[in-house]
Amino acid sequence: MASLLSFTLPKPNITKACSTTTTTASPPETLDQKFGRKGIKFSESGEVPTVELKVRNGSSLRLSIPDCHVTSYKPKVYWKDDGFEEVLYTVSSSASKARGGIGLVINDVSSDPNSKGSPVLTSQWTVKDVDSDAIDALQVELGCTSGNLDITYVVSLYPLSMATAVIVKNNGRKAVNLNTAILSHFKFKKRGGTGIQGLRGCSYCTHPPLSSPFELLSPAEAMKSEDPAWFSFGWEPEKKPGEWTVQEVPITVLKNKLSRVYAAPPVERSKRFYNTAPSKYETLDQGRELFFRVIKIGFEDIYVSSPGSMSQKYGKDYFICTGPASVLVPVVVNPGEEWRGAQVIEHDNL
Fold first, then answer.
1. Which of 90, 125, 208, 274 could pair with 268 as two cysteines, CB 3.0-4.6 Å apart?
2. d(CA 219, CA 227)
3. Rounded-to-integer distance, Cα 159 and Cα 173, Å
4. Mean pLDDT across the chain
5. Do 209 and 328 meet the contact criterion of CB atoms below 8 Å apart?
6. What average pLDDT does the segment 143-153 reach?
């Protein structure tokens, strides 16, 4: 299995899933018959193949296979028996696919790096493999092909963390330029107690998100300005797109509407030394007294947005969209080479 999680999280021992050959004709194997095992359960939800991972302490996640969309992550965060909390904000209806959750976005901008590009992930994903280490570390590997690109997506679950990792291999004769991101929609109990910690001293600019089928706010909606909520002391309007500033406060309050990219400005990256965006930061949910650490690997940027009052069209809960990205400067994948990126969400709430 193409594991790319080389950090200090526990790694599962590889146990390949295989099927036996028979001489008589038999019905096609279901995904659960071929790949299912303890802690990994394949099923269909509304005729959409899904897989649920559940480790020993009860932490679980759910993944929609055709679009590699993580629609639920429910870790154990309290010591009591029912101490599980949903981390992701996901909206679903019978008329359309689920939105929110954790979505992978890859756009090809080879023809014009300044354009929105064309989506790479237009074909359906299939299950390539599963790995497990007892039921304390579980992985599902998905794959799809788009033109000359072979793309692998590995979703992993551990007792105190989950990870999503992508590998893009270029089998063509020309280099490709890609804008890419792993965007997570975090759920919060109330608008007033939402924030992020760990971006102090980092440069940022106002910038729209990459458009995707999973978005709760379109790029235009994310960039639309609105008046601040009541009691927003110290609030300042967002900067104009392309205007850079430095985060000076330790906590980014996400009560009001914003859409930002935290990163080194592109003009700085040609220098021998420059300040990069931090490799990790934390979401703060004061309403539930929970925090989650987001770790980026292989990406240059961090995208952060909050919906402000626009969250009300989806219900009473609040949400933000954030995650590692390469938006300002495309990732270049040369012929015969591959690019890797990952996001880890972990917590110490126990």
1. 274
2. 18
3. 42
4. 89
5. no
6. 96
